[in-house]
Specification:
single chain, Rossmann fold, Arc Repressor Mutant, subunit A, 2 domains, 43% helix, globular, disordered C terminus, Homeodomain-like_sf
Length: 345
């Protein structure tokens, strides 16, 4: 084994979805393509299959694509870095057990001194192996609640792109895996090499903020017929002051009853719910208009530009200006005819 051996685990039996293929390709691209002008030696990449499927090892059903690996789980022991890009959807959504051989192999690799890494749902494999117990970790924000519920010993953080806990690292989903892989290069070879590699791959060397800026802030559906029209009204009047008492009166409830019903329906308190909606409106305006930060603060009900920046940094993880650069508008808008439309959103 070389000093920089990276073992990437193909965990399926194996029916990879398109996003799983994307996450598998990230470490293969970063660590598998020689970059001798940046660092020599570079990394030695091994793609290791679980070896549990009846089809050829690594075969991807329904895509016309097959991955035939020369390495199995026994090759994880001795690798310097072990990366689990994803696990089968059924293991996340349906609670299907992960292959026991995979879990045991991950434990043996860690005990042998490997640096353990997961991308997206690969965190479920590290958690099942007990490698995330007592540690801060992340995964794609769509799955962090399931990760936290299934593995209560893990300190799940859904706001970050990746977590570096020394010898165990985890990332959010999809492109956040590239952020983490570049971070590993930065750790191993320094910022200059990582920056040059990022430029070569036409990606930022480091993205500001975390995955909080990508979380969908839309309101959860509710079957509470008394709340639905009140929440619709509030969303169309976010540019106005709204008190909890106003919402309770519109719902013909006492403030205490309204508080309880809303929390049961959405999981949020009234003030949390309002703030989430105002932030969502501000995000939408930043993405779809060229209105000033001051005007967006006013139309979203967040007040001054300073107040908007404060809430964005606290809850989204980036400033409004950084968010706007990350999500540039696709349809030019002056915003001149925007305010009347807000009432009908």
């Amino acid at each position: 084994m070389s000093a920089r051996t990276v073992a990437v685990v193909v965990t399926e039996e194996i029916r990879l979805a398109s996003w799983d293929l994307y996450e598998l390709s990230i470490p293969c691209t970063v660590f598998g393509q020689p970059q001798s002008d940046l660092a020599d030696p570079w990394y030695h990449l091994m793609v290791c299959g679980t070896g549990t499927q009846e089809r050829p090892q690594g075969a991807v059903a329904g895509t016309g694509l097959a991955l035939r690996t020369d390495h199995g789980l026994d090759d994880l022991v001795g690798a310097d870095t072990v990366i689990v890009p994803s696990v089968p959807d059924a293991c996340v959504e349906e609670g299907r057990p992960l292959p026991e051989a995979l879990v045991l192999a991950l434990r043996r690799a860690y005990e042998a001194g490997a640096r353990m890494v997961s991308l997206c749902t690969g965190a479920f494999a590290l958690a099942e192996a007990g490698l995330l117990d007592g540690r801060r970790a992340t995964a794609h924000w769509l799955h962090t609640a399931q990760l936290a519920e299934r593995y209560p010993k893990v300190q799940v953080d859904d706001s970050v792109l990746y977590v570096d806990d020394g010898d165990v690292l985890t990332s959010a989903g999809l492109t956040a895996g590239l952020d983490l892989c570049l971070h590993l290069v930065r750790r191993d070879h320094g910022a200059h090499v990582a920056n040059r590699l990022a430029r070569r791959m036409v990606v930022p060397a480091h993205r500001p903020g975390g995955q909080a800026q990508f979380i969908d802030l839309s309101v959860p559906e509710t079957d509470d017929e008394a709340l639905a029209p009140v929440l619709d009204w509030a969303r169309s009047h976010l540019d106005q002051p709204i008190a909890v008492g106003d919402l309770a009166r519109r719902a013909a409830m006492s403030p205490r009853t309204f508080y309880r019903r809303l929390q049961e329906a959405t999981g949020s308190t009234p003030l949390q719910w309002l703030l989430t909606q105002r932030l969502g409106r501000a995000q939408d305006l930043l993405e779809s208009t060229n209105l000033s930060i001051e005007k967006i603060g006013e139309l979203s009900g967040l007040g001054t530009a300073n107040n908007l920046r404060h809430h964005f940094l606290n809850h989204i993880g980036v400033s409004p200006s950084e968010y706007r650069r990350a999500f540039p508008q696709t349809v030019p808008s002056t915003g001149s005819d925007l305010e009347p439309q807000l009432r009908t959103v």
